[in-house]
């Protein structure tokens, strides 16, 4: 970036000396810390800022330059380009150049960023050795920097603290240090009595320099302890402060040390239980415990149960009325009337009696195929034991399960189901009643299923079809009578003209039957056939539809020979169709090569039975395709196929390339011309600058010119661009275009920097794409609206359908404004 200095021209400005670049007169910071020094521009003459060139010196033994920052400065986010260099020890270079808009600004220009490497007390001058404002020297002030000495941290806000035993306590104090943020200092702690307060029970948090200290003394400990806080900064200096912490004693409530397990008492048997002495404990020396007992809901103990608090003993004799579970609560109370309780279950168990049958179940009957439901009474069985429940099971008396048609709901004592013909008869049902101890009582009853006559059953026959004058036979179906009755099977037709009843034959015996149907000659249509089966009392029928279809004749198509055509043209082909049945025809056309000839490019029109097929191949496609024409009368179809061959067509695109050095220009050889799009072609211009593409296929194309040969750029080109940017010189029309080395639509300081860096070898390219030459398809006669005009650098051909001659280009050397 330093080479950009040569671009400034020493033009005197009477007001430049009234503009001053200022540094703060003095600054101070600690060792190893980052340092930011503001540099201010006082634009006292209120001039437009076209360019700024600064050189700032410093002592590299005290400071290391890390860069510059523009955040919040007067030229940040404005239309200025800048560059800086901190790689040279002891000096910083910074350069600003207006790109398109020029502003009048005053205030903070930039921040110089350093890292402090000197030791305490060392100093460094910060000197602006050169300051150019619009390429004219400007006033400047200097500053001095001093490395600050280290000082120990400070601790404030500690005072004596008081708290209760078995509690936590927090207090706050402040840490301050010049060179170390307070929350980066890690304080340490010492305690005078670790028995009362352990170091492990001390914690702290830091927020904005304020330390919140939290202490938790050991359990059941009290007394006074001295706590010392020590703070150490990053320079190793320390400071300590101490304060007293008084922990006041507090009475401890008794606790439940060992829970009492649940107990069992037996009806009619004497009960006694003494809970252990270590069930409850109290941490306070000399405290004694007294005991009381009640039910868990604070009601008194039941009358049969007594409690002796002196011996901690329960005793009593439960009776049958006392059977069940009670919850007993024991409470232990210390001399300060603080207490703790425990509860346990006392279960008084019973002696079991079996259930008994009180009301026998009567016999019952049900008809075949009828839904059955029967629920026996809840008081059929009983159990005298309090709280005993009865469950039920049901089976046959031979211990086999109930028949599949009959289910038993044990919870609701309900039998249900629907018996079928095969279930006719009598079964004997056994019901077992069981109590919770599996003692049982039983009862049996008879259930009779009575027979009822069943209708014959005929299997379904799906709808059938056959052609005209064709016998349809071998249609199988079944007839069944669950009662075993003999059946009479017959069939009738709803349309005797199509199928006469006498032309229906039923064959077979037992349950397997077949039906054969002979339609009347030359008849078609549909009829409903009804099949009947009778057992003498009940008749069952089923129906199906028979459709007799007429016989159809296929359509015909005329033959078509092979066809030839050029690409991007159309072709008409004629075909004649016929159908002797007079059926309307559906005509479809398809192509075997959808890339060459998509189906959507084939259209169809007709005059009666004569059809015209119009074929339009896809753009720029050649080759051959098989075209298939199909005629369909709705029942049958026929097709014919013919070949279409599409031949290539070629056009010429030619022109001349010259360099834009004058109106006439001079020929440019070796320019790469590329024609891309539907197809791709490439060649170089000859010694006279001419090019010609003679075999270009139809399609859409873009023609570009490119040349990568070296351009003889000089530093004078960069200086000329900078002078023109700040309006110190005037460029001609073609020079304005050449000055746009970055090819972004306008020229400015960045274009000059690109050229300068290329000349001195720090950049390999004039622009990001390494395009040394820019080509335009026509001369520019006026640049009055520059840089608003748009330059088209390609030629475009949409739907090429003929030769394109005199397609000329003019080349402009990027950045070359000195020729």
UniProtKB/TrEMBL annotation:
InterPro entries per the UniProt record, alphabetical: Cadg (IPR006644), Cadherin-like_dom (IPR002126), Cadherin-like_sf (IPR015919), Carb-bd-like_fold (IPR013784), CBM2/CBM3_carb-bd_dom_sf (IPR008965), Cohesin_dom (IPR002102), Ig-like_fold (IPR013783), NOMO1-3_2nd (IPR055074)
Family matches, as PROSITE patterns: CADHERIN_2
Signal peptide: 1-16
Coiled coil: none
GO terms under biological process: homophilic cell adhesion via plasma membrane adhesion molecules; polysaccharide catabolic process
Keyword Signal on entry: yes
Gene3D superfamilies assigned: 2.60.40.680, Carboxypeptidase-like, regulatory domain (2.60.40.1120), Immunoglobulins (2.60.40.10)
Pfam families in alphabetical order: Big_9 (PF17963), Cohesin (PF00963), He_PIG (PF05345), NOMO1-like_2nd (PF22904)
GO cellular component: dystroglycan complex
Keywords from the named record: Signal
Residue intervals of the Cadherin domain: 453-557
Molecular-function annotations in GO: calcium ion binding; carbohydrate binding; laminin binding
Residues spanning the membrane: none
Record-linked NCBIfam families: tand_rpt_95
Protein name: Cadherin domain-containing protein
Record organism: Candidatus Magnetoglobus multicellularis str. Araruama
Higher taxonomy: Bacteria, Pseudomonadati, Thermodesulfobacteriota, Desulfobacteria, Desulfobacterales
């Amino acid at each position: 970036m330093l080479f950009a200095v040569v671009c400034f021209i020493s033009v005197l400005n009477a007001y430049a000396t009234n503009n001053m670049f200022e540094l703060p007169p003095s600054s101070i910071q600690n060792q190893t810390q980052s340092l930011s020094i503001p540099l201010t521009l006082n634009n006292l003459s209120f001039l437009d800022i076209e360019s700024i060139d600064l050189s700032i010196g410093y002592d590299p033994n005290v400071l290391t330059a890390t860069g510059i920052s523009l955040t919040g400065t007067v030229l940040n986010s404005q239309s200025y380009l800048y560059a800086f260099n901190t790689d040279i020890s002891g000096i910083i270079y910074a350069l600003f150049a207006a790109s398109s808009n020029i502003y009048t600004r005053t205030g903070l220009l930039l921040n110089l960023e350093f890292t402090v490497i000197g030791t305490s007390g060392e100093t460094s001058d910060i000197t602006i050795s050169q300051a150019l404002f619009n390429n004219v020297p400007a006033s400047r002030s200097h500053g001095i920097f001093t490395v600050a000495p280290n000082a120990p941290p400070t601790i404030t806000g500690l005072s004596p603290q008081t708290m209760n035993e078995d509690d936590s306590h927090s207090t706050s104090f402040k840490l301050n240090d010049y060179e170390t943020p307070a929350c980066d200092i890690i304080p340490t702690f010492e305690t005078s009595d670790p028995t009362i307060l352990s170091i492990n029970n001390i914690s702290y948090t830091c927020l904005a320099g304020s330390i919140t200290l939290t202490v938790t003394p050991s359990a059941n400990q009290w007394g006074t302890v001295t706590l010392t806080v020590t703070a150490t900064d990053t320079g190793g200096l320390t400071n300590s402060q101490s304060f007293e912490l008084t922990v006041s004693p507090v009475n401890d409530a008794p606790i439940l040390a060992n829970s009492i397990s649940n107990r069992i008492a037996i009806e009619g048997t004497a009960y006694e239980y003494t809970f252990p002495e270590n069930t409850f404990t109290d941490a306070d020396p000399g405290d004694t415990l007294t005991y009381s007992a009640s039910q868990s809901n604070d009601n008194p103990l039941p009358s049969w149960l007594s409690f002796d608090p002196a011996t901690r003993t329960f005793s009593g004799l439960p009776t049958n009325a006392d059977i069940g579970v009670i919850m007993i609560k024991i409470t232990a109370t210390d001399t300060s009337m603080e207490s703790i309780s425990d509860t346990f279950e006392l279960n008084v168990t019973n002696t079991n009696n079996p259930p008994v049958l009180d009301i026998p179940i009567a016999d019952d009957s049900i008809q075949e195929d009828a839904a059955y439901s029967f629920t026996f009474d809840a008081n059929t069985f009983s159990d005298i034991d309090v709280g005993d429940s009865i469950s039920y099971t049901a089976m046959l008396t031979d211990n086999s399960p109930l028949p599949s048609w009959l289910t038993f709901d044990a919870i609701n004592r309900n039998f249900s189901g629907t018996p079928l013909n095969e279930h006719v008869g009598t079964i004997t049902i056994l019901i077992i009643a069981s109590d919770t101890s599996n003692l049982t009582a039983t009862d049996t009853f008879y259930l009779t299923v009575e027979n009822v006559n069943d209708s014959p059953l005929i299997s379904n026959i799906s709808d059938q079809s056959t052609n005209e004058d064709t016998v349809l036979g071998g249609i199988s179906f079944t007839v069944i009578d669950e009662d075993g009755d003999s059946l009479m099977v017959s069939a009738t037709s709803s349309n005797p003209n199509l199928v006469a009843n006498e032309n229906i034959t039923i064959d077979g015996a037992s349950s397997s039957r077949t039906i054969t149907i002979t339609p009347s000659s030359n008849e078609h249509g549909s009829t409903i056939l009804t099949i009947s089966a009778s057992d003498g009392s009940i008749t069952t029928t089923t129906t199906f539809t028979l459709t007799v279809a007429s016989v159809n004749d296929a359509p015909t198509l005329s033959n078509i020979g092979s066809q030839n055509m050029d690409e991007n043209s159309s072709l008409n082909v004629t075909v004649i169709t016929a159908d002797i049945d007079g059926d309307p025809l559906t005509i479809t056309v398809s192509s075997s090569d959808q890339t060459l000839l998509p189906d959507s490019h084939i259209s169809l029109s007709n005059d009666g039975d004569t059809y015209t097929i119009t074929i339009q191949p896809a753009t720029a496609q050649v080759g051959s395709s098989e075209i298939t024409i199909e005629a369909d009368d709705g029942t049958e179809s026929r097709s014919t196929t013919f070949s279409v061959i599409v031949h290539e067509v070629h056009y010429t695109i030619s022109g001349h390339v010259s360099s834009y050095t004058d109106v006439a220009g001079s020929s440019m050889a070796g320019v790469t011309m590329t024609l891309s799009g539907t197809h791709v072609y490439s060649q170089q211009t000859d010694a006279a600058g001419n090019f010609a593409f003679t075999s270009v296929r139809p399609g859409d194309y873009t023609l570009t010119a490119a040349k990568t040969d070296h351009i003889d750029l000089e530093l004078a080109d960069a200086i000329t661009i900078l002078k023109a940017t700040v309006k110190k010189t005037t460029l001609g029309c073609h020079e304005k275009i050449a000055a746009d080395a970055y090819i972004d639509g306008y020229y400015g300081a960045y274009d000059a920097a690109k050229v300068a860096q290329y000349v001195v070898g720090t950049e390999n390219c004039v622009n990001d794409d390494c395009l040394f030459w820019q080509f335009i398809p026509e001369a520019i006669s006026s640049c009055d609206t520059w840089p608003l005009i748009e330059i088209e650098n390609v030629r475009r051909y949409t739907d090429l359908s003929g030769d394109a001659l005199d397609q000329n280009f003019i080349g402009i050397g990027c950045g070359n404004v000195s020729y």
